[in-house]
Amino acid sequence: MSAGLESLDHTVQLTHIWINELDEKLGWNNKPRSYRLLRAVLHALRDWLQVSEAADFAAQLPVLLRGVFYEQWRPGTAPVRKRSKAAFLARVQEAFKGDPLILSAREITAVFELISSKITTGEVEDVRNGLPEDVRELWPKPRAEVGAGR
Questions:
Q1: Per-residue pLDDT tens for 57-84?
Q2: How far apart are CA 110 and CA 21, in angstroms?
Q3: Prediction pTM value
Q4: Exposed (0-12), middle (13-18) or buried (19+): which is 23, by Cβ within 10 Å?
Q5: E strand or H helix at 76, and its extent?
Q6: 75-78, long-range: CB < 8 A, 24+ apart
Q7: CA-to-CA distance for 145 and 71, rounded, in angstroms?
Q8: Within 13 Å, how many C-alpha atoms sit on residue 67's CB side?
Q9: Which of the residues 64, 82, 121, 146 has the least number of beta carbons within 10 Å of its own beta carbon?
Q10: What is d(CA 142, CA 119) in angstroms, rounded to the nearest whole number?
Q11: Contact residues for 65 (Cβ-Cβ < 8 A; gap 6+)
């Protein structure tokens, strides 16, 4: 670890853990692509949530991913007006122009499952409830033992 920079080293390590777990869950063996998916889903999620809920959610992310979450955010435009499942999928798909996702709903669900394993169940429930019902279908309900804030 770098002297005096332990918290930065730690957040980089946590971010790698998230990306590695997602990459393994997807079976892609392509960490840059897994990161791109995680980033795209975080941005879409951020834009679909009310500002206060987005901030509550971001507070549970590792610091580095929190920065990714807030990257280029314009809170005055949140939540987006057309908050449908199709629009959510299209928003994520934008990050994959030239490298399209084949089953984008499955991949997005994998990201949501990862998030559920990393943040508290209560926050997952709050975020899910802040999404339109058809988008919520992509995010399985958390089980009590999942989301222990790891």
A1: 999 999 999 999 999 999 998 899 889 9
A2: 10
A3: 0.90
A4: buried
A5: none
A6: 75/51, 77/47, 78/46, 78/47, 78/48, 78/49, 78/50, 78/51, 78/54
A7: 31
A8: 6
A9: 82
A10: 10
A11: 11, 14, 15, 18, 38, 42
Side chain identity at 37, as an amino acid letter?
L
Residue type, 62: P
Place of tokens 């995680």: 38
Helix (H) or strand (E) holding 39, with range, is helix 31-48
Q: In this structure, what token pair is assigned to residue 87?
A: 């629009």
Torsional sign, CA 89, 92, 98, 104: negative
Token pair belonging to 51:
């500002």
Please state the length of the chain: 150
